[in-house]
Amino acid sequence: MGCCDTPGLMPVETALTKILDQVEPLKDVTSVSLSDGMGLVLAEDICSPINVPPFANSAMDGYALRIADLESTDTLRMAGKSFAGIPYDGVCQPGECIRIMTGAQMPEGADTVIMQEETDVDGDNIRFTAKVSHGENVRPIGDDVHQGDVVVAKGNRITAREMPLLASLGIATLPVYRRPVVAFFSTGDELRPVGEPLEAGQIYDSNRYGIRALLEKFGCDVMDLGIIPDCPEKLREAFDIATTADVLVTSGGVSVGEADYTKDILDEQGEIGFWKIAMKPGKPFAFGTIKNTWFCGLPGNPVSAMVTLYQLVQPMLAKLSGHSQYQPPQRLKAKATTLFKKRPGRADYQRGIYQLNSEGQVEVATTGNQGSGAFSSMHQANCFVVLEQERGRVMPGEEVTIELFNHAMY
């Protein structure tokens, strides 16, 4: 075992369960216009106020008729026309048909539509060349949605798939939960803002950019508090500001270094639920509270920060936001095509590239360098290769579990 494979670390599944058992959804509900609802979580079931379609209409360009009339003849007289938005103002009588367009209201008396390609037209005399069944090519009232149906349930996040559905029902406003507010900052004297020259021993602060991007993808409002130096007084000031948010996310400062003060301040002002988990990358992850704010302390290494935020904080924020329909990223079985180095002791979230081979089987290869500071591995990857805590190295040809990146990574 290596120095990072400390016995007795909390398994990832246990850590996530502890987080989700403690966090409760926010209760604040507001009303927003439909156009402003994208990405928000519904606080109530949305029931349809109307039938969709609200009237029987044609699924084709063709002719509306009474199917019984074709039992004795194949030719009917066209008595009028029905257009979308301009219906035929009359009754389809025996022996008649009505020219009709896609989406147009079915005339009273008609029960079937025959598409125009299956007719011969001679002035107003229409001969029908195909046999059809009663009701063919007709969309009945409520064919898609019935009045009173729950069309989008409470706890769903509104996406591009729901927007046109809700608009088709004439729903102008939505009851939604407010977005969680998440404060975040990076810690470390070695960090410099991008765009400034580096001096000896300094690196650019990349974590805040990845953290902000993911938090916004998770549907949160963010408070970027910048880079906080390794100074207890400055850290206390940042913590005071951050406790106005629902959640505080930090990167760095929860390790065991002499200048890692974040954990010390949490011991003074808050409560740490757990610290250190059996996860690679990401062992020094801390979870707890400070005043009335949830605290998630991410490791300082960039890949570790991204992986723990994605694996542990994402489902927590989903629950906090009321997103009860949240689904974890999809997992599949795949065949390894390269060696995956690993030692037992921690669940490993290696970065991989999966694809379908010529036989339609899922295969996965490593992105190469799996170091917690090698962020190019995240750029190249399209999945995590999830290697079980007690598993050792994986040889080519062995089966592994992969976790496809969800929308937050794209």
Automatic annotation (TrEMBL):
GO CC annotation, single: cytosol
EC number from the UniProt entry: 2.10.1.1
Main enzyme class: transferase
Domain MoaB/Mog, residue spans: 183-319
SUPFAM superfamilies: MoeA C-terminal domain-like (SSF63867), MoeA N-terminal region -like (SSF63882), Molybdenum cofactor biosynthesis proteins (SSF53218)
PROSITE patterns, alphabetized: MOCF_BIOSYNTHESIS_2
SMART domains: MoCF_biosynth
One of the GO BP terms on file: Mo-molybdopterin cofactor biosynthetic process
Cofactor: Mg(2+)
Gene3D superfamilies assigned to the protein according to its UniProt record, in alphabetical order: MoaB/Mog-like domain, MoeA, C-terminal, domain IV, Molybdopterin biosynthesis moea protein, domain 2, Molybdopterin biosynthesis moea protein, domain 3
Signal peptide limits: none
Metabolic or biological pathway: Cofactor biosynthesis; molybdopterin biosynthesis
Keywords assigned by UniProt, alphabetized: Magnesium, Metal-binding, Molybdenum, Molybdenum cofactor biosynthesis, Transferase
Family recorded in the similarity comment: Belongs to the MoeA family.
Role: Catalyzes the insertion of molybdate into adenylated molybdopterin with the concomitant release of AMP.
Entries under PANTHER family matching the protein: GEPHYRIN (PTHR10192:SF5), MOLYBDOPTERIN BIOSYNTHESIS PROTEIN (PTHR10192)
Protein name, UniProt field: Molybdopterin molybdenumtransferase
Source organism (scientific name): Photobacterium gaetbulicola
